[in-house]
Amino acid sequence: MDILSRDSESSLSIHFVELDSTFYPSICLSVRVHDNGFSGENKSIWVARDDVTKFILECEQNLDSIEASLVSMSSNEFCLTLQKINRKGDLLLKYALSRTIYRDNFPMDLTTTGGFIIDFSEVEKMIRFFRTYC
């Protein structure tokens, strides 16, 4: 699923990798962001299925004043927030995406954060995508 900014200069891509029901019901996602020349990717982000369900419900129940967040199980790997920002109904998608790499056995976090304006149809696209796995 690709979420595009209103000006088509930015996008957030979320793809399903796998489900885990053995230890804790969760979903593994691959996330990539391109935002006005900046980019980042993490191919293995785990999100609790309960949190995905909560995100879907927040989006559906608060259509007039959307404020919904989805956060990864591992701290700081991924955060997606939707927020209505004015009376016109413009929606701000904010993101934080991180990945830890090791250089000479020293961990370093690569992080990109930002946000962009999206149309409501992109929220509907997210709801359909996540419903497939919850």
Question: Your description of this structure?
Answer:
This protein is of the alpha+beta class and 134 residues long. The protein contains 2 helices and 8 strands. The protein has helices spanning 49-61, 120-131, and strands spanning 2-4, 10-20, 26-35, 38-48, 67-71, 78-84, 91-103, 106-118. The strands form 2 sheets. A 4-stranded antiparallel β-sheet has the order 1-2-3-4. Strand 7 and strand 8 form a beta hairpin. The longest helix is centred in the middle third of the chain and has 13 residues, at 49-61.
What is shown here, in short?
The protein is of the alpha+beta class and 134 residues long. The chain has helices spanning 49-61, 120-131; strands spanning 2-4, 10-20, 26-35, 38-48, 67-71, 78-84, 91-103, 106-118. α1 (49-61) runs antiparallel to α2 (120-131).
What are its keywords?
134 residues, alpha+beta, 4-stranded antiparallel β-sheet, 2 helices
Number of helices: 2
The strand line-up of the biggest sheet is 1-2-3-4
Shape: globular
| Low-pLDDT windows of residues | none
Terminal CA distance reads 16 Å
What's the main sheet like? 4 strands, antiparallel
Calculate the mean pLDDT score and round it: 92
Strand content range = over 45%
Task: Tell me the radius of gyration.
Answer: 15 Å
Number of strands: 8
> What structural class is derived from the secondary structure elements?
alpha+beta
Helix fraction, binned, reads 10-25%
Quaternary class: single chain
| SSE order, one letter for each helix or strand | EEEEHEEEEH
